[in-house]
Amino acid sequence: MVGILLSAGFSRRFGASDKLLQLLPDGRPIALASAEHLIEAIPNCIAVLRAENKVLAKLLVNAGFKVIFCDENAQEMADSLTAAIHYSLNLEAAKDGFVIALADMPYIQSETIRAVANKVGDGASIVIPTYQNQRGHPVGFSEKFRNALESLLGDEGARSIIKRFPDEVHLLPTNDAGILADIDTPADLKI
């Protein structure tokens, strides 16, 4: 299983400062907290960043991630995910599938991520965690979706695959409200 941390967005709603480096109440940068939870659950992880984000790249390398950079001309959501899937061709662990996480969701519990990965490992094709009947993140995909993930285009990302294959989706109920909590604005830091 390969964990993929998508960290190449522009965070325009957050303002001028780099959202992913903002500190949580526990003192960790948002993206580092997200990364630590992911790599604790899945030891083989890739993070995709914009090339100019050297500070975050160093933090994630130190956390054990393989860091790759999204092409500066790649501005759409699907671009960073397809870059990670393409890079994963070099990783033996990718034969077991992928768990795709977002760097601005630092409150997801490692146990939830592990449960998503385990469901994929047990044969589920697409695994989406739920909290109080609401779908959240991270989403797991079996290896059979590699080509579909690598061929994505546009701003919809993997959601288009989920829409195309609704019968392949396994919903995984959790008690983890963190699967719904992303940080988009400075106000979201005040939990």
What does this 3D model show about the protein?
The protein contains 6 helices and 8 strands, in the order E-H-E-H-E-H-E-H-E-E-E-H-H-E. By secondary structure, it is α/β, with parallel strands linked by helices. It has one domain: Spore Coat Polysaccharide Biosynthesis Protein SpsA, Chain A (Alpha-Beta Complex). Helix 1 links the parallel strand 1 (2-7) and strand 2. The chain is globular, with a radius of gyration of 15 Å.
Task: Give the helix/strand layout.
Elements: E1 2-7, H1 30-41, E2 45-50, H2 54-62, E3 66-70, H3 77-87, E4 98-102, H4 110-121, E5 126-131, E6 134-135, E7 139-141, H5 146-150, H6 159-164, E8 169-173
Parallel strand pairs: 1-2, 1-4, 2-3, 5-8
Antiparallel strand pairs: 4-7, 5-6, 5-7
Helix pairs in contact: 1-4
Radius of gyration, CA atoms, in whole angstroms: 15 Å
Mean pLDDT: 91
**What would CATH call the architecture?**
Alpha-Beta Complex
Number of domains: 1
* CATH homologous superfamily identity: Spore Coat Polysaccharide Biosynthesis Protein SpsA, Chain A
- Strand % is 15-25%
Low-confidence stretches: none
Classification by helices and strands: alpha/beta
Number of helices: 6
Output the CATH class name: Alpha Beta
Q: Quick one: how many beta strands?
A: 8
- Written as H for each helix and E for each strand, in order along the chain, the element string is EHEHEHEHEEEHHE
Tell me the quaternary state. single chain
Distance between the termini: 32 Å
Largest beta sheet, briefly? 8 strands, mixed
Q: Give the overall shape.
A: globular
CATH topology: Spore Coat Polysaccharide Biosynthesis Protein SpsA, Chain A
